[in-house]
Write a structure and sequence with these properties.
The complex is a heterodimer.
Chain A: H1 3-41, H2 45-50, H3 52-57
Chain B: H1 3-28, H2 31-51, H3 54-59, H4 78-110, H5 116-137, H6 150-173, H7 177-193, H8 207-239
Helix pairs in contact in B: 1-4, 1-8, 4-8, 5-6, 5-8, 6-7
Classes of the chains: A mainly alpha, B mainly alpha.
Organism (chain A): Bradyrhizobium macuxiense
Pfam families (chain A): CbtB
Protein name (chain A): Cobalt transporter subunit CbtB
């Protein structure tokens, strides 16, 4: 294997890893938004009542 | 360790610690004010129910959601505080996932780990985006203070958050004059449109109590975002080491 081939082989996985990193980060961010959405914004009575003080304390729109 | 696992580990650890600390802080800052406001709220409700005919209560705006007699709610005292702690921890984990996902993209782009200090700065950006910006138009409200319909406020809150995040992004990442001007305009836009509000607000909750609440919420949120930024970035720098990749 020539030097340029070695360099290429080392280069490609880094690029793929970068894409993977972006996709995984976006997945984590979506999960985070979903959790905040349910705790802070759900209109379901039971969730509202359980998280009532947290919604007020975070100034999420409430009531 | 995969990036996703590193983000989740860091967020759960940081979110758990921050959620517990903020629950303790709230016991001295926001919760006593909420409990005091609820005394006024309940007094007003009883007066309202006593004076209104039964059918009027059924069509009353509040009757079908938060004050519905049949909906479960935690008992005051320990049970209520435990649910508050749980919701605080979940909120902190949720925001930590959002913040840490962003930090992962950023450290991936620069090739440098994020220091706790830089994490603190991004935490403060979260404070500006999620507390200051929406709070300007929709100040933190105590129970018993009438407000515009919930959905319209939730939509405006979301628009204010997105516009502020996008505006700050333009200013920080596109280092050009037109982008900076566009960023500032974007941040101002939701406020120029105006948050939904009632024309006439009648409440027996004292305005001094409401003012104290705005200060308490804002300061508690500052503690929340500072801790979340610092701890999430420190945890992520630990789990995302090259050796464990």
């Amino acid at each position: 294997m020539s030097q340029s081939q070695t360099a290429q082989a080392q280069h490609l996985p880094v690029a793929t890893r970068q894409v993977g990193r972006l996709a995984q980060s976006l997945m984590a961010m979506t999960l985070g938004l979903f959790i905040v959405g349910v705790v802070g914004f759900s209109h379901i009575d039971v969730i509202h009542n359980a998280a009532h003080d947290v919604r007020h304390s975070n100034a999420f729109p409430c009531h | 360790m995969s990036t996703f696992r590193s983000i989740v580990f860091s967020s759960v650890i940081a979110g758990f610690i921050v959620g517990l600390i903020v629950t303790a802080v709230q016991q001295f800052s926001t919760v006593p004010l909420i409990l005091r406001a609820e005394v006024y709220e309940k007094a007003a409700e009883h007066k309202h129910e006593a004076s209104a005919p039964p059918q009027a209560i059924l069509v009353h705006d509040h009757a079908d959601h938060d004050h519905g007699a049949e909906a479960w709610e935690p008992k005051d005292g320990l049970e209520r505080n435990l649910y508050t702690a749980g919701a605080n921890i979940l909120t902190a984990i949720g925001f930590a996932l959002l913040l840490c996902g962003f930090l992962a993209v950023r450290s991936g782009a620069t090739g440098e780990p994020i220091s706790w200090h830089e994490g603190l700065m991004w935490g403060l950006a979260g404070f500006a985006v999620f507390t200051i910006a929406p709070g300007l138009g929709l100040p933190p409200e105590l129970p018993g203070v009438p407000t515009a319909p919930l959905l319209s406020r939730q939509i405006w809150w979301t628009i204010a958050v997105l516009a502020t995040a996008a505006g700050l992004g333009l200013i920080v990442f596109r280092r050009s004059m037109p982008a900076a001007i566009a960023g500032v305009v974007l941040i101002m836009l939701p406020h120029l449109i105006g948050a939904p509000e009632l024309e006439h607000v009648e409440t027996n909750v004292p305005s001094s109590l409401s003012h104290q609440f705005v200060v308490a919420v804002t300061l508690t949120s500052l503690v929340f975002w500072s801790l979340l930024g610092g701890l999430t970035s420190a945890a992520f720098a630990y789990f995302d080491r090259p050796a464990s990749a």
